[in-house]
Amino acid sequence: MTFVAGVDLGSGRTKTVIIDENEQILGMGMARTEADFDIVSSKSIGSACESAGISDDQIEYIATTGLGRYSLDRRDIQITELTCGGRGAHALFPDAHFVVDMGAQCTRAISLRDGGKVKSFRTNEKCAAGSGGFLERISRYLEVSIEEVGKLSLEANDAQPISSVCAVLAESEIINHVSEGKTVPDILRGAHDSLAGRALSQLKLVGFDSPVVFIGGVAMQEGMVDACRELFPYPVYVPEHPLHVVAYGAAILGLRRHEKRTQETAVA
């Protein structure tokens, strides 16, 4: 059996997915990203190996992606997050041609060609107000854990609008809502609605006209998913493990490269 690992070295967490020659997921791992990418990658890979019931030395090929994709010395290939996100989403939902990847640092809207190849994309990397980092700042200000944000948002009765496209000005709006006695759920739902609106604007720029796959850490928040499903004009698919989709795509692309290299070696 062939074992290939995809490692997504993100700004917040480092995720690993191990697959076999049939692209089946055997194990997943995750570790909080630290300054030393080799150390944190070893933790994430080790966790995935334990999940898969294999040893580290049984991995035949490693594909890296994400912010720190060049930093893992033992990698066999590095691939961009866009390419991996598109491939992973397509493998899980072949009928979807659009992807929203919402992480800690940025939100990406991606359109796909047949086969999961990236056709076009838009990103909001210039401002934290359009990403998961904004929700983390809000949760700290409102004194709730980031793990509570998704469920609390669903309890909203009167979502409070957050119109600013600047993170600093948006925080001022939140302060005003608090001073006016607005509830935490209503403020959080307003934040989710704001992020959903910005994601929709990005999707429209890449030709949004059919179902979309929602991936990334923010897709784990129920309130965020609900906001997108309420606003988007087409179905929103959410994978069982949205945080690991990019790593899964890296593993699939790594498997294809490993197979090609093996065939070339056999011919030679």
Question: Could you describe the 3D structure shown?
Answer:
The chain has 268 residues and is of the alpha/beta class. The chain has 2 domains: 1-93 and 240-268, ATPase, nucleotide binding domain (Nucleotidyltransferase, domain 5), CATH 3.30.420.40; 94-238, Nucleotidyltransferase, domain 5. It contains 8 helices and 10 strands. It has a 5-stranded mixed β-sheet. Strands 8-7-6-9-10 form a 5-stranded mixed β-sheet. The protein is globular, with a radius of gyration of 19 Å. The relative contact order is 0.18. The mean pLDDT is 92.
Number of strands: 10
Spatial order of the strands in the main sheet?
3-2-1-4-5
State which percent range the strand residues make up. Answer: 15-25%
Distance between the termini: 23 Å
* Derived structural class: alpha/beta
CATH superfamily of the largest domain: ATPase, nucleotide binding domain
Which regions are unreliable across 5 or more consecutive residues at pLDDT < 50? none
**Treating each run of at least 4 consecutive H or I residues as one helix, how many helices?**
8
The share of residues in helices is 40-55%
Shape: globular
Oligomer: single chain
- Overall average residue pLDDT: 92
CATH topology of the largest domain: Nucleotidyltransferase, domain 5
